Amino acid sequence: MAVRREERIRCLGERRRKLAKGIRVPQGLLRGSLAERRIECANPGCGCHSRGGHGPYLYLSQTHEKQRHTCTLMPRELKKEIRTALANYRKLKRDLYRLSDINLELLKLGGLRPSGEKKRR
Ligand SMILES: [Zn+2]
Predict the structure, then answer these.
(1) For 28, phi and psi rounded to 5 degrees?
(2) Which residue, 88, 91, 92, 116, has fewest beta-carbon neighbours within 10 Å?
(3) What's the predicted TM-score (pTM) here?
(4) Is residue 118 part of a domain?
(5) Which segments within the chain are labelled E, that is strand?
(6) What's the CA gap between 117 and 52, in Å, rounded?
(7) 39 Cα: distance to centroid of ligand 1 (angstroms)
(8) What was the pLDDT predicted at 1?
(9) Statement: residue 121 has pLDDT above 60
(10) What is the pLDDT of residue 26?
(11) What count of other Cβ atoms lies within 10 Å of the Cβ of residue 25?
(12) DSSP label at residue 31
């Protein structure tokens, strides 16, 4: 039905407007995930071998282009802030995915332009 289609387009357009308006790009964002690891050292006489290694150390794990992977040692005292920055990144990414999904739906319906411009007559 044409009416339902128009209503759907209007609805998606409204969702898109609200979503785009609410998207913020925080300066404090970080991509990747945190991991904690204990590491046994090379010294055979060190007590770390009996207590599961030194640490735990905090690492930021990231995947880059061509499946390159890095692990970067992070300051433990910043764990909370790092978690917040990681969450900021995930939220922004989620919002962008949603916006893209709405635009795809609008394209399929032949409704609002994905660029956000008004449809010309
Ligand atoms: Zn050790």
Answers:
(1) -85, 75
(2) 116
(3) 0.79
(4) no
(5) 33-39, 54-63, 69-74
(6) 59
(7) 8
(8) 58
(9) no
(10) 94
(11) 8
(12) -
CA angle centred on 25, ends 67 and 17, rounded to 5°: 110
Residue 37 Cα to ligand 1 middle (Å): 14
pLDDT computed for residue 114 by the predictor: 63
> What pLDDT digit, counting tens, does each position of 31-85 carry?
999 999 999 999 999 999 999 999 999 999 999 999 999 999 999 999 999 999 9
Contacts of residue 92, Cβ cutoff 8 Å, sequence gap at least 6: 23, 24, 25, 26, 29
Quote the number of domains for the chain.
1
Distance 26 CA to ligand 1 centre (A): 40
In a domain, 119, yes or no: no
* Among the listed residues 1, 8, 3, the one whose alpha carbon sits nearest the alpha carbon of residue 109: 8
Confidence label for 119 from pLDDT (cuts 50, 70 and 90):
low
Least Cα distance to 4 among 108, 109, 76 occurs for 109
- Compute the distance between CA of residue 22 and CA of residue 91 in angstroms, rounded to an integer: 11
Range of the domain at 45: 2-109
Distance 14 CA to ligand 1 centre (A): 59
117 part of a folded domain? no
